Amino acid sequence: MTEQTNYTLDPQDWEAFRKTAHNMLDDMIDHMQSYREQSVWQPVPDEVKEALSTPLPQTPQSLESAHQEFMENVLPYPLGNPHPRFWGWVIGTGTPLGAVAELLAGALNPQLGGGEHAPLYVELQTIEWLKEWLGYPQSASGVMVSGASMANLIGMTVARNDKADFDIRARGLQSGQSRMIMYTSAEGHSCHQKNVEMLGIGSDSLRFIPVNDQFQMDIDALEQAIAEDKRAGYQPICVIGTAGTVKTGAFDDLNAIADICEREDIWFHVDGAFGAFATIVPTHKHLADGMERADSLAFDMHKWMSLPFEVACTLVRNNKAHYDAFTLTPDYLTHGKRGASSAQHWMSDYSIQLSRNFRAFKVWLSLKVQGTEAFTRVIQQNCEQTQYLAQKVIESDELELTAPVPLNIVCFRYIREGLSDEELNALNEELLLQLQESGVAVTSNATIDGRYSLRMAHVNHRSTYADFDVLVDKVLELGRGL
Ligand SMILES: *Cc1c(COP(=O)(O)O)cnc(C)c1O
Fold it and tell me: Going by CA atoms, what residue is nearest to atom 7 of ligand 1?
C-alpha cells in the first residue's frame, strides 16, 4: 500500500503557532493600550502602498514575517477611529473586550444561519436584552446584521412586502400595481435611497420631506406629501423617521409620525443608527419618545455601543410579517425534528443572509461583562462633553455653531470679520484638512445652509474633556494661520 498524505490548513506545529499567536495578541494589547500616544491619522506613505502591492502568494511565508509586515505597514496607518481625539463621521472606536470576543467567535466559527447549537440561543437572548434595553415591545422579532444600512434595508423590505396587496415575493414590482411611495426627511441618511433603489421602488418614489430649523421632519409637509400622493393614485407605504440624523443629531417628532402612520395605515420605520441609544440616557431619553411605536427599528452597535465592526440589529414589531418576508426552506435546509437541524428558529428566515457569523457574541459578552450601566455612563459623558465643546465654541469670538446641538454632534466653523461666506467656506475646508493632517484630531465636515462646517460627532468612549480643549486650541491656531 502506498503511503497517503493528508493535507490540512491547521498549523503543522501547534506549539509554534501558539507562541506566535500569543505574541500577536500581546502586540495588539500593547497597541490598544497606547492609542493616546499615537497620531490620530497620518497619510499612508507611497513606500507603504508599494510594499502592500505584491503578487498573489503561491508559496507560504512564515507567520512571523507576515505578522512583521502587518506591524510595519498596516498597523501604523489607521483611519484613527479608536484614538481619543477621533470624531469624524459617526465611526465607533471599538473596545478591547470586543476585540477578544471577535477572537473567540472566530475560533468557535459557528454558522448562525440555522441549526441547533448554543450560539443561536446566545443571539436570541441578546436580541431579547436589546428590546428590553431600548424599550421596544418584547413580542417583536429581531435579527443582527452588518450595519444600519442593512438593518434599514431589512425593515424597509418587511414594510414593502407587508403593505403590498398582492404576492410581492412572487410577482415583484413588475406588474402594474399602484406606485409605492416611501418618505424620509431631507436629513435622512443616504442608505435609504440605495435601499429603495434595490427594493425596486426607485429613488423617484422616495420623498425627502423638508425639515424645520431644528432639522426635524416638517410634519405638515409630510401630511401634505402623503395627501398629494394619494390624490395622484399612488400608495404611501412607509415613513422613515430618524432618531439622530447623521449631520446634526436631530430627532424627528416620532410620536407625530407614528400618529400619521396609524391613521393612514402606513408602515412606520425608525432609523436609529446611533440615536436609538439616547433612550438609555435619562437626560436625553425624551428625544426618542415614540420610537417604541415603530413597526420596525434599525440601529447600529458598532457606533454608539463602541463594539468592533460590523454589528447592527433590526427589530420588527410584527414577528410574522418579518418571517414572511424572508422565510424560504428548500429541502436541503429542512428544519428537522431532531438532531443538528432541529432548532425551532432559523435566523436565515429573518434576513437575506444564509451563512451568518457570530456577531451577537461580542454584544452578549460586552453586556455581561460591562453591564448596561457602563454604556449609559459613557453615552451620558459623550453628551456632556458635546455640550462642553458647544459652549467653548459659543464663548469664542473666532468660532460659531452652524447647527443646534441636541445630542452628540457639534457643527461649527472658524469665522473672521470681513470674510464672505464663500471665503469662509474655503478657509474652513482648508482648516479641516490641516487639522486631519496635523495628526492631532480628526473631525469630518458638513455643509449647513451653505456654510461649510467642521463636524464633531462624538461616539468616542476614550475622549476626555481635555481632548476638546486640545481640539479648540488647534482649530484656533490653524484658523489664525489661514
Ligand atoms: C451610520 C448611519 C447609517 C448607516 O449605517 P452603517 O452602519 O454605516 O451601514 C444609517 N443611518 C444613520 C442615521 C447613520 O448615522
Answer: 147
pTM of the complete model: 0.97
Q: What is the DSSP string of 398-429?
A: TEEESS--SSSEEEEEE--TT--HHHHHHHHH
> Strand order of the sheet with strand 409-414?
86-87, 442-448, 451-457, 409-414, 399-401
Instruction: Tell me the best of 156, 189, 240 to mutate to test the pocket of ligand 1, counting ligand atoms within 8 Å of each CB and taking the most.
Output: 189
For residue 299, the cross-strand partners are 313
Q: In what order do the strands lie in the sheet with 141-145?
A: 141-145, 312-316, 296-300, 267-271, 235-242, 180-185, 206-209
CB 447 within 8 A of CB 247: no
- Spell out the residues 6+ positions from residue 83 whose beta carbon is closer than 8 angstroms to its own: 35, 36, 38, 40, 93, 442, 462
Give Rg (Cα) of the chain.
Answer: 25
Nearest CA to 409 out of 287, 307, 308 is that of 287
Rounded to an integer, the average pLDDT of 239-260 is: 98
Smallest CA separation from ligand 1 atom 14, residue:
273
Query: Is the CB of 246 inside a 6 Å radius of any atom of ligand 1?
Result: yes
The 10s digit of each residue's pLDDT in 71-88 is 999 999 999 999 999 999
Ligand 1 atom with the shortest distance to the CA of 300:
7
Summarised one tens digit per residue, pLDDT across range 402-411 is 999 999 999 9
- Separation of first and last alpha carbons in the chain: 81
**366 burial level (CB within 10 Å; 0-12, 13-18, 19+):** buried
